[in-house]
Amino acid sequence: MESLHDAALAESARITVTRVLNIKPGERALIVTNPSFDVFTISQYLYNALTEAGASAVMLVQPRKSQLDFAEEAVLAALASEPDAVLSISAGKIGKDRKGIAEPYTRGRESYTHIFDYLLYGKKSIRSVWSPSITLPIFSETVALDYDELRNTCLRLKALLDRAESVFITNAAGTRFKTSLKNRLGQSDDGDFTLPGSGGNLPAGEVFISPVVGASSGTIVFDGSISSHKGEIIIKEPVFAEVADGYVTDLSGGPEAAEVEESLRLAAEKAFQFEKAGNIPAGKAELYAKNARNIGEVGIGLNPKARIIGNMLVDEKVTRTCHIAIGHNYEDDAPALIHLDGLVKNPTMELTYEDGSKQTIMDQGNLLV
Q1: CA gap 186, 90 in Å, rounded
Q2: Fewest Cβ atoms closer than 10 Å to its Cβ: which of 155, 196, 202, 209?
Q3: Rounded to two decimals, what is the model's pTM?
Q4: Is 16 helix (H, G, I), strand (E, B) or coil?
Q5: pLDDT, tens digit, for every residue of 20-32?
């Protein structure tokens, strides 16, 4: 591949390959990207770094995909070949797996609607980084981190979330939200994706958990940025989300709230269209539609180089924030066609443990652990 001359991009690519993924000579690596300038350029730098590390690298280019689009069959076939490492460097998403949605892959008692998730979380035969909507500035500015410090912070927070029965989140904008975490395990996006079965975002820097389905209530005031079917929005007028029994029952605010509400409506409609076309199992459309309003994630941003820029890949990593997602969760017990993250700035987060004791892990945006 042609010579590339940006030193910062080359260094971020080198760190990704050698530190984050620890690619070894002879390993097979698959890059999936789009013809959009930024992600295609980043992919070229990664391809060069992979070959310099001695990997056998392949780069596939498919049209840009949204949360509701299907991946190209060639991409799914390449994933099914089980490369050692998969790098999804996409302007949007990698795309849904038509076959997997209709006939989920199984591993033991677990089922997966995408070949990628099956190989990563079920079979644990690949390791991966994924960077939806990454840009050249994000890649050059937020990948070079003190990964040892980040991993230690992630380990401490994950251990606390694993023990917690619930979390109560407040902020000055009016958030008062409680959700159950009982028997749920946190996940760590710490940039250590060196072993099969490990993977996460690049840039890294968050700990997150999927709340118990049906066990969230209160008011969330999104005041940082938020995802919609059209992309990310930097919030000017706060979005108020009322939550009862685990689902968003009302959204209010300005144009941002209206756009998110439209996203939830479209996701519910799409579920019935998918069922009619045979793209989700028969009889599941109502469940998918309902879960478009599910509380699917609570996460904490930990990347000191991240800033709110209207790109959720980096926004959700911003320190002094937490994010709460509406839609599909990471336990795969609330399937939906969307996953929309929203930022809450300067939150106070209080955990409650099984013995009734409480611990504040963040106070008005200041991390305490």
Answers
A1: 26
A2: 155
A3: 0.89
A4: helix
A5: 999 999 999 999 9
